[in-house]
Amino acid sequence: MYLKALFFALVINYAASEQVPFVPCKGQSAVLSVAITPCNSKQIEGWKTCLLPHESRVRVEAAVLAPFSASQLEVVASANLNGHTIPLPNSGSNPCLENITPGCPVKEDRMYIFTFHFDVLKYYPSGRMQILFLVRDKKSKRNIGCVKLPVVIRGH
């Protein structure tokens, strides 16, 4: 019963975040939706794009229908800034430890919500960037979910 209540609370929290468009990565990806908090969105070239202020803490949540079962996962997260790829903190972490609901092991054809936090550091240049957020099986390197998110970094 506790797990059902926890899952329901997380789904409500997910729904309260701002749903954003995303670009699926190449290959298999079963991402159903993505939400970012905070996200003061603005239409830029036809895309609803999040404006992220410097020194903010950002939460990315992705609802994923698992394409296969897996017991060991890893997160790959990076930002592409002006043609330079910068790994985000916690890239390489194991989402099974705290960032997946319901928990691991992941079962094929079940829905999961993956959560990733990162800080918009003050030395990130202002302007457009693209975030890559990938969850994959640690052994086979097969993607469970992968998206690219266009965002804009801005000063306070």
UniProtKB/TrEMBL annotation:
Gene Ontology CC, one term: extracellular region
Keyword Membrane: no
Pfam families reported in the protein's UniProt record: E1_DerP2_DerF2 (PF02221)
Predominant localisation class: secreted
Entry keywords, A to Z: Secreted, Signal
InterPro entries associated with the record: Ig_E-set, ML_dom
Subcellular compartments: Secreted
Domain MD-2-related lipid-recognition stretches: 22-151
Extent of the signal sequence: 1-17
Family affiliation: Belongs to the NPC2 family.
Identification of the protein by name: MD-2-related lipid-recognition domain-containing protein
Phylogenetic classification of the source organism: Eukaryota, Metazoa, Ecdysozoa, Arthropoda, Chelicerata
